[in-house]
């Protein structure tokens, strides 16, 4: 099999071999082990898996210095950014431990036997159970928070699903190191062998998705990569759920009043957002709608000045660098698109990209500007009036986010923008910037196609719902029911005979 090389994006050269590509028979063996582990991982119960997640977070923290250093060498994202990302990774593991302890994710419901207007009803008890082994594809742009120890892995393990991760070729060394840290911690926590596995290589990824033991796929990456995996899934005898975060333009609207009131502040925020992490965020604002007139002119002047002060930035890998070059060339050569500002020229070392600020008109918005271009570039579209603004928004593809920056106390135009964008975005922001996705109970990181292909989120506590399925027990003897569906169990919220009942502490007499 081919060697898997770790490459330094700052030089563009290979550094070391960290693994070899995983052969199809090895993938099959790992998937079979995951299938054997599934009932044992579920049998650990909510508290056992919560303890497992806490142990994984603690283990990552103990190796923080080594992990951050290697991730920086493989991604050029910088130790400050990666240190924060590791903190986020540990936080989301611990948050899912809290989800397990709280228990409402089970959607537990009990309908006792009894008479109804439609006749006698049997005893029915329903809750969500693990879907089975899950394949997770690590993302290039977040080597920790969306990769081997990332949110998909945390959500699947919390649900009770073993995980087989396809390491991303941009950071194979980081993937391997983190995997070894997690496996040792999982063993120490009493998790079964096969709870977590890792494969390398394109062929291994295809074999993983095709394996009959795999019951769902979590993917963060390109639209073309996601479509390739969907094609494999559709050829399976039993197609399975595919949860993909794929492509997003993330339009951002600046109202005339906002541009007039705080042009310099907005310019700083927008440029900082679309160049953050070298523009390699799925939530990067790729289209900025700015009013015409003097206030819009002033805003563009401020943005252009800031872009000219930026140095070239390192991209994650050779493929992304080549795609950025093609994408920006396509945009620059599109009729009606002008270059407003360029950053400082790159030298020849590594996978570098020069930040770009482009401009066009919102009237007759070119199709080319509505395709995501991964990297430090955005397109400003000037609109003459509200009708032109709303018409342009109607033509934009659905996205993970949409944003409006308002004037002081302004509500009417922002409300109209929000109503329109709610149909085509999963998260709508007021007076902020979309880069940065907080991990919380109320977060949603998803949107209509092509941003994602599902109703679910890949960030936040409800990400666990992707890896669960409902089961109903009918007329089951009490001793054969899961604990959470027994009459005397009070530890999770449940809907009993139509009434929502919150979790309670078990009475002392009942625990004696």
Number of helices: 15
Radius of gyration in whole Å, from Cα? 25 Å
Strand proportion, as a percent range, falls in 15-25%
Tertiary shape:
globular
Strand order of the largest sheet: 15-17-18-13-12-19-20
User: The biggest beta sheet, please?
Assistant: 7 strands, mixed
Category by helix and strand content:
alpha/beta
Uncertain parts: 506-512
Q: Please, what is the average pLDDT?
A: 95
Description of the molecule:
The chain is an alpha/beta fold. The chain contains 15 helices and 23 strands. It has helices at 24-43, 45-62, 64-75, 79-102, 151-159, 172-188, 202-210, 223-235, 256-261, 263-275, 293-308, 318-332, 386-395, 412-421, 508-511, and strands spanning 3-8, 13-20, 109-111, 114-116, 119-121, 124-130, 134-137, 163-166, 196-199, 216-220, 242-245, 252-254, 287-291, 313-314, 338-342, 352-353, 356-361, 377-383, 399-405, 425-430, 468-474, 494-496, 499-501. The strands form six sheets. It has a seven-stranded mixed sheet, with helices on both faces. It has a five-stranded mixed sheet with strand order 21-6-3-22-23, with no helix packed on it. Helix 2 packs antiparallel against helix 4 and helix 3 packs across helix 4. It is globular. The termini are far apart. 48% of the residues are buried. Residues 506-512 have low confidence and may be disordered.
